[in-house]
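Exercise (ungraded).
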Amino acid sequence: MAIRIQRVPSENLGGGVAARLIAILLALLVAAVIFSLNGADLGALGAHVLKSTFGSRFGLMDIGLIMTPLILTGLAVMIAMKVGAWNIGAEGQFCAGAFAATAVALFVPGPTVVIVPLMFVAGALGGMVWILIPTLARAYADVSELITTLLLNFVGVLLIYYVATGPWLDPSGMSFAATKRLPYDIPSFWGDVHWGLPIAVLLTVLVAAVLNYTRWGYEVRIAGSNPSAARYAAIPFRRHLIVVMLLSGAIAGLAGMFEAVGTAHRLQGGISNNFGYIGIMVAVLARGSAIGVLAGALLMAVILKSGIALQTQGVNISTVLALTGLILFFTAIGDELSHYRIVRSKPA
Amino acid sequence: MTMNVMLNAEETIASGSPIQPIVRLRGIAKHFPGVVANQDVDFDLLPGEIHALLGENGAGKSTLMNILTGIYRQNEGDVIVDGQLVTFASPLDAIAAGIGMVHQHFKLVKAFTVAENIHLGWNETPRRISRELLEARTAEIAASLNLAVKPAARISDLSTGEQQRVEILRVLSRKARVLILDEPTAVLTPAEAAELFKALRQFAARGNAVIFISHKLDEVLEISDRVTVLRGGRKVTTRPTHECDKRMLARLMVGQEVVLSNMRERRPDAKPVSAEPVLSLRDVSAHDDLGNMSLKRISLDLRAGEILGIAGVAGNGQKELSQVLTGIRPLVSGRLQVCGRDLSARGAEEFAAFGVGHIPEDRLQSGLAPALSITDNAVIREYGKAPLSRGWLYRPSAAAALARSIAEAASVTVPDFAMPVRNLSGGNQQRLVARREMRIASNVLIAAYPCRGLDVGAINAMMRYFTELRDAGVGVLFVSEELDELFKLSDRIAVMFHGEIMGVVDTSDVDIETIGLMMGGQRRSAADLAGEN
């Protein structure tokens, strides 16, 4: 009898989930080792983190607020992956959505019941415009959307800095890089937590339902999984690619709109706060499942909130970003390893 | 050492000659899931000889050579080099033992120069060396091996023939004594091929040996000293080349015993062959993916209730033909009719709607979405129809029911329909695709290489499906490169060569040699053959 390691074509669901949990635990373990090497009191830090996340009403509210944009950016990246495209540009689309919604709030007068839906539409359109060029370039010239969406992120982030420090700067002189407080608000349902969160959850469920229970969803899944098979089955790959990528941009734009109008109440430099990039992690952790997006967004929100708590204890915020990187790193290893199983066999 | 001596003694007795082979393969078997790639293959290579390895596509030539070069590990049998039993853990071990291979698709770095490619990944390359020295070393090696190359030229600027010479030089610079060439002339002009042959003869004359893989009979007869023929993964024979002629090699390669089993016989209640064609092509031309004209004014009729075989060496337009016939590839010119309706300018959707099913050449690349579930893949032809869809709604439960019935008809046991389809074996994937396509093929089924890579059981199942369709009055176009399959199944055979039809003949009037000659570019018509008989 000898023990051999054998590759299997695909892992089972239980193995995949277990691999993910182990990955998160290992990332936390590495972080703990580094903290204790730096002389930190792990017990005290841990207690502080728990208290400021799950242990208090404000902690839970913050998690809800952070989760909202993460669900949407995660969903945006996930739906693009369904059609076989990598939308690395949720960050830029987020900025464009925030920008467009702020423009409506600042310059269109009207009753709240009209302006809030209008901001919603503007946010989605902003994100859509931001992904339009990458989409058309991919669909008609086969230009990698990975590069084009990524590059537009820098443009989007700088656009926000420009308007927030220049033309739209708060005239009261109270801030250096933000607009005045926006005159409209997304209604809240629990403390600070606004309706953006349930809408994001609802949108996720809706997207999942559309993908699984409509003809269009079936065609998108086939087209995204294998464009040649789509051609073979007379499914219009290009059309689905364009529609889904625009939808992806719109969802990321909504994230920016909710963040600017509902959470920050103003447009400020750095408002995107890496939500677009973390959305990629959420989508990767979700492995194409909508429920997975919700779980991934929750996990990332808890980590980000913990990071804020740790910052007050003198821990650098970069450490927390490194922790998210570690989780992704271990998850990738775990995913690969879950393709292997150990078998006992007679020596060949 | 005891082992060593024993082998030598045995070899001497077996061959009756004192010459020790450089390489000897004994009882080699290699199995892949569902496929026997090699079984009981014996092969020996003597110093100074050019040994041709002849066989159709899929006969097991490449697998055998991959075993000899350490890319695969055999399931059974021994590899013996210079009388020593060896185990190659990787291609590096094979190179160290003096065995090098030039693949059909070159493995050169296009952006690098010749000198850089020669020295890449070679432990004799000095750690630090200037460009000039690298090129000087290359020129020296090239001169010593009598192979003219330009050391400073970039690979991307070289002709295919020159690139091949660089590949050969790279192998020989590693002190190879055995040079394996996989279809080396496929990419060469006749002049380049002549030059290659000269270089090979010189190399062999120095006491080295060449294994020359090919399915071109002319060049095998021209260049080789001995020929080994493989068929269906097994060795058919090894003979001195001067005892062989073209007809004989063709027969050995495609199979002596063409079993004319009763698959061509119809069931008594079968529908008769129609007088009018169900599918007809007139002067149809089409491009391949690179924009070359790969179908040249093809005219062909397929009648309802018959199986029309398409023979030919792969790459002579069969793939494009099957794509044109299913609406995936646009026509450049000509006319295409299905059941009397002109579909020349129509797409895949209309062909499917007119009852044309399609088993594509490469099922994993175009017929399936490998990462999606078995259910998703099973319903790709019918997801838009009731009961799977109502309006824009799609019903996964109805899809699962259809997937179950298709799997049942295909006799494929599926443990979990949500599992990615790539987890199924090749044979089971193919059965599912075939059954799925049969459901929509009410008029025509286009089957491109449906039996490629399958084991005997799956091949038989596939053939039974086609006879079932034929007896039900469907026209079946069966593309294959296996002549015995074509003879077993087809009522008529059309032979393709360089994008043209060399003739359409009745299977009962023709023999394998004639088809072989047509595959090599000779035109024949049914009338010619009737005249001969």
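Further reading is listed at the end of the chapter. For now, observe: Chain A touches chain B at residues 9-10, 212-219, 221-222, 225-226, 228-229, 231-234 (CB under 8 Å). Residues 112-141 of chain A form the longest helix (30 residues).
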